[in-house]
Amino acid sequence: MTISRAAGWISAALLEQQRQRSKTSLILHVFSQWGGLGLVPLAILDSSLLPTFGSLDVLVAFLSARQGDLWPYYAAMALLGAMIGSYLTYKLGQKTGLGWMERKFGRRRSLQVEYALEHWGVGAIFVSTVAPPPFPTSVFLLAAGAFNYKMRRFLSAVFSGRAIRYGLLSAIAAHYGRTIVRYMRHPGEHLWISLTLTLFIVLLTVGFLLLSKTTPEFPQGEQARTPKLAGGLN
Q1: How far is the C-alpha of 52 from the C-alpha of 162, rounded, in Å?
Q2: Contact 83, 155 (CB under 8 A)
Q3: Sequence-ordered list of residues with C-beta below 8 angstroms from that of 123, at least 6 positions apart, any chain
Q4: Cis preceding linkage at 227, omega within 30
Q5: In which element (H, E) is residue 202 found?
Q6: CA-CA distance, 31 to 175, in Å (whole number)?
Q7: N or C: which terminus of the chain has fewer CB atoms within 10 Å of its end residue's CB?
Q8: What confidence score (pLDDT) does residue 142 get?
Q9: pLDDT for residue 104 is more than 90
Q10: Is 109 part of a structural domain of the chain?
């Protein structure tokens, strides 16, 4: 690799990062004016197929840092919107089916998500709702509907994962104030925090998957296909 090519890739990455920050700032400007109520429609969008560039997490942290005593309210508003959005995406998956999902996201990624749902069941849905951006959570929500995964278990997994995510995020932001907001907007400047959070999420994920590795509940007579895959989700 030449130095000029490497410099070009770095410049492109920085430019893309700057574009995403601009889009995040625009979204935050729109929804932050509504306070806690703005978290509901933003969380609905965040659980849909539309990209929100991590703006929901930033807004939850910002509001909780500004009014620390209201952090349970902000967590609840984000959770409410996430449940509504997840349900709508699930129903979209039911209506459109596997074929549309494969055309939208590609056959390889669709099979990888299908593999995770078949082998980990509720654990895969839970992990997708806890994992931070840019994890493709909406693909898992859509796939659960396309596979007719049982609604009760689906909603339970989404509720658990989102409650943990937004509860911890708002509580930490209320305690540490604007420091956590600066971290979320510029994570590269706080590498040790990123590593700690990543390790925590990995440990939480592994623990939950080991405890919940059961045969997923698909409707009788319906099962996901069994793809032969190697490697993880890209």
Answers
A1: 16
A2: yes
A3: 157, 208, 209, 211, 212, 213
A4: no
A5: helix 191-211
A6: 23
A7: N
A8: 93
A9: no
A10: yes
Flag whether 227 is in a domain: no
Note whether residue 84 is domain-resident: yes
| DSSP code at position 132 | P
pTM above 0.85, yes or no: no
Number of structural domains the chain divides into: 1
Confidence of residue 55 (pLDDT cuts 50, 70, 90): confident
Q: Could you give the percent of the chain with pLDDT greater than 90?
A: 30
Burial 164-185 (b: 16+ CB within 10 A, else e): bbbbebbebbbebeeebbebbb
Which has the closest alpha carbon to 158: 142, 180, 134? 142
On whether residue 219 sits in a domain, the answer given is no
Domain span holding position 189: 20-211
Which residue is listed with tokens 């703006």? 55
**CA distances (Å), 169 to each of 46, 60, 74, 85, 132, in order?**
16, 7, 10, 19, 11
Phi, psi of 100 (to 5 degrees): -65, -40
What tokens does 57 get? 């997490």
User: DSSP 3-state assignment of 232?
Assistant: coil
Cβ atoms of residues 61 and 181 within 8 Å = yes
Counting DSSP H helices and E strands in the chain, the numbers are 10, 0
Taking CA atoms, 190 is separated from 9, 90, 185, 186, 226, in Å, by 23, 36, 10, 8, 41
